[in-house]
Amino acid sequence: MATFTIDLLTGNLYLFTGDFNGSGSTPTSGSTYPQVNLYTDLPPAGSAAGQIYVVRSGYGTYVLNRKPAGLYFSTGTVWRYLGELPSDLLNSTNFQLLDGVDTSKGIEFVTSGISTGVFRQLKVQDSDGTIAYLTDLNTKLNTSAFADYTGTTAPNTYLSISDFDVYSGVTYTLIQGKQDTLVAGQGINISGTTISVNLPKALQLTDNVGGVNVNNIAATSITWSSVVFSGTSLNYSGGSRIYVQESGTYGISYVLNVNSSSGSDKNIGTLIRKNGNTDITPMSSASFRSNFQNDSSTNVMPENMVTLVNGDYVELVAFRIGYAGQVYTVSNGSWIKMEKKII
């Protein structure tokens, strides 16, 4: 049986063809394996078929092309390593999986975050798929939506594109979960990230008293005595004036009832006046009371649209356009209504 031994002084490896006999003797015959420093220093395998060489130093990158130190045997075609894999081959800093075509790319495993003495297991489910990172999930799912969930999870149901083939509605283009176009108007106000809606606001006043003579050349403002409905865009605190608190478009309508105790014909005109000196409607109505004692007449204006600004005030005024005499407002016979419009 052949015997290997190493010269401790030189580090050379020797092969003896015979056995040692007895004790304390020194063999007198033997041979050494040829030695080279690196794997790349080995002669071509075809010129050294059947020979064993000693490579003294390791060479190359782990996994990719590592050639460790040790004994190599030539098969006549390749040099084959005689020994175990390097002990540190599977260290996370060395172990790699290379692409089958482009060996310049691949993957590595990072184990530095695992607790000492712990081996973590990666379980692969019985299906094909693509591994997703946590950062992928963060951009697609808000896990806080499930924070209060205490029920039973139903089986997964998936929709395909064909499920939407018959959809005929309006599709909004989305950018990061938001509509790319949102325009203020039609009662919608946008201020930064706040969206508010203007609801219709109206004011209606009545005259429950009456008895005011309006058959005068100088216009007489109609005084109101009862608030039927009050909206926040308008303010009324008594008297004849209605104050505007929000700029915008308003619809105004009214009814004025009058009668007379005299026997002559009477004509009464009415209109809406702004800020005491600007008529914002034409003489919207004129009533004629014929020559019959205690006859009454009515001035009516359907809703008329006007533009007003914050701080304006409006009044209903009545005046004489016929014969002189007494014409009085009728109690519970007159009213005015103003409504802010959403345009």
How would you summarize the topology of this molecule?
Elements: E1 3-6, E2 13-16, E3 31-32, E4 35-36, E5 52-55, E6 70-74, E7 79-82, E8 96-98, E9 106-108, H1 134-138, E10 174-175, E11 178-179, E12 188-191, E13 194-197, E14 201-207, E15 220-221, E16 226-229, E17 234-235, E18 242-244, E19 248-259, E20 266-274, E21 278-279, E22 285-289, E23 296-308, E24 313-320, E25 328-329, E26 334-340
Parallel strand pairs: 4-5
Antiparallel strand pairs: 1-2, 2-3, 5-6, 6-7, 8-9, 10-11, 12-13, 14-16, 14-26, 15-24, 17-18, 18-24, 19-23, 19-25, 19-26, 20-21, 20-22, 20-24
Can you tell me about this structure?
It is a single chain. Helix content is 1%, strand content 35%. The protein is mainly β. Among the domains are: 3-82, no CATH class; 201-340, Jelly Rolls (Sandwich).
Described by the principal axes of the CA atoms, the overall outline is: rod-shaped
Low-confidence stretches: 22-30
Radius of gyration: 52 Å
Q: Can you tell me the CATH architecture of one domain?
A: Sandwich
CATH class type of one domain: Mainly Beta
Bin the helical content.
under 10%
Q: What's the number of extended β-strand segments?
A: 26
Topology as a string of helices (H) and strands (E):
EEEEEEEEEHEEEEEEEEEEEEEEEEE
**Helix-and-strand structural type:** mainly beta
Mean pLDDT: 80
Tell me the major beta sheet: 7 strands, antiparallel
In percent, how much strand structure appears in the residues? Answer: 25-35%
How many helix segments? 1
CATH topology of one domain: Jelly Rolls
Cα distance spanning the termini: 109 Å
